[in-house]
Specification:
461 residues; alpha+beta; de novo design (two linked rop proteins); Heat Shock Protein 90; seven-stranded mixed β-sheet; 9 helices; 11% strand; rod-shaped; disordered C terminus
């Protein structure tokens, strides 16, 4: 399973790297295209100057044809002039229709108007009025110079339009680069956050659960082996204890009352009973019986336990009270005898922690928040005391089997309680503060209705 998770992580990281590489390549390609476009625009700009130069060269050529015609009046020269002038006129009309920027269109329209005036002045040279040749030549020279000047203005208009286009393109590409880089950083940030969320909410819990499951399996294997050992040990120990106890009972009947021998016999009997309790707890821990679950009202259970312990605790000046929730109809599905065993153990521990002059509170409350294991919420049963609390060094080993701070304890009480609660699908938790007290909480799934009424509870202790 972990190898599969690692594979998915590797694939995920590979996909991130590929996406990042794609964005970087896109940015590089965009920058390359931008440089190419800039070169093309520079070429076009040079072409605009070439067009202006061609216009000027053509005008000068027409001037040359007209001067030749003025000198020798050769009809062939005039035909060449007519041919070139028509070609230039067609070119100007073509450029006016082609351009789409205001400066260039205005410049070409001015060229067109000026060229019409130039042609008009040129036609005057073919058949000038008598005595007006000098004036006609002066008019032609003036129109020719104006046409050449408009050619320079056309080149300037071309350059201005190209500069505006280049500036707009530069802004667009700069914005595109900014958006592309921002998207790259945003993608990296989002992917990083997504990877963190996946690790935190999917991978880390699975890893923790795997470690816990492995520990549980090891513990169950040890307990299974311990159960087999416990059966044999309990059988071998119980038989001699039973025989010793029977002989002791027969011997006690022959001893004089209130004698030293009778006192020794009582001591031996108490120690035999303690050995029997140790064997019983050991067997119960190693091979616990399956719970026989029935609907149990927690309020009734706590009330009976209060009545059981009240007189015993009053001798130590320890009060015991019950605090119940408003919803007294809440039930839990549990084995009543096993639940009593857990609560009796917790109450006895609380009383030993207090020693004298204190209070034990048995509290029952509901937690309506639904979960997958508890669709109707949970019931929380708490045993709270005002005792000495649990020191940190003891907390670490609180639920370890056979760990105890009591001289006559077996160290199995809380371990057995934990296993019983877990077999009911619940949890056993606690909170403590040194010299302020401890609260143990039993969390069990809540049930809302049953097919038959809950059985009356009776203590068998």
């Amino acid at each position: 399973m972990w190898n599969s998770v690692q594979l998915k992580i590797a694939l995920f990281i590979t996909a991130i790297c590929l996406m990042t590489g794609a964005i970087i390549c896109s940015a590089a390609i965009s920058w390359r295209d931008f440089r190419t476009l800039r070169k093309q625009l520079t070429t076009i700009e040079l072409e605009s100057f070439r067009i202006a130069d061609d216009l000027q060269q053509t005008v000068l050529m027409l001037n040359n044809y007209l001067l030749k015609y003025e000198i020798n009046h050769d009809p062939k020269v005039w035909e060449q002039y007519e041919k070139e002038s028509k070609r230039l006129d067609a070119w100007i009309d073509e450029q006016v229709a082609k351009v789409d920027t205001v400066p260039e269109k205005e410049a070409l329209q001015k060229v067109n108007v000026t060229y019409d005036a130039f042609l008009e002045a040129a036609r005057g040279l073919k058949n000038p009025p008598a005595g007006q040749t000098v004036r006609v030549l002066a008019d032609f020279e003036r129109e020719s110079q104006l046409l050449l000047n408009t050619g320079f203005k056309l080149a300037e208009a071309h350059r201005l339009s190209l500069d505006q286009f280049l500036e707009k393109t530069q802004r667009t590409l700069t914005l595109l680069s900014f958006i592309l880089l921002s998207a790259l950083f945003l993608l990296i940030a989002c992917v990083t956050a997504l990877a963190f969320i996946i690790f935190k909410h999917l991978i880390a819990p699975l890893q923790t659960k795997l470690v816990q499951s492995h520990a549980i399996i090891e513990r169950q294997e040890k307990l299974a082996s311990l159960g087999l050992l416990a059966s044999g040990v309990a059988h071998e120990i119980r038989n001699p204890l039973t025989a010793i106890k029977a002989k002791l009972f027969a011997w006690q009947r022959r001893l004089p009352p209130h004698s030293a021998e009778q006192s020794d016999a009582r001591f031996i009997n108490e120690e035999i009973s303690r050995l029997e309790r140790i064997v019983r707890d050991f067997l119960l821990f190693a091979r616990p019986s399956d719970p026989v679950k029935i609907p149990v009202p927690p309020a009734s259970l706590l009330g009976e336990l209060q009545n059981l312990f009240r007189d015993q605790l009053e001798k130590k000046r320890i009060s015991i009270k019950v605090v119940t929730a408003d919803d007294l109809t809440s039930l839990v599905l549990a084995d009543p005898q096993q639940m009593k065993q857990v609560l009796i153990n917790l109450i006895q521990n609380a009383a030993e922690s207090i020693e004298s002059n204190g209070q034990i509170v048995l509290r029952f409350k509901t937690e309506p928040k639904a979960t997958a294991s508890a669709p109707h919420g949970n019931v929380i049963i708490e045993v709270e005391d005002t005792g000495k609390g649990i020191p940190p060094e003891i907390e670490k080993r609180l639920f370890d089997p056979f760990f105890t701070t009591k001289e006559a304890g077996t160290g199995l009480g809380l371990s057995i309680a934990m296993r019983i609660i877990q077999s009911h699908g619940g949890q056993l938790q606690y909170r403590t503060q040194v010299n302020a007290g401890t609260t143990f909480g039993i969390i069990l799934p809540r049930i809302t209705h049953v097919d038959e009424p809950a059985e009356e509870l009776h203590l068998n202790y």
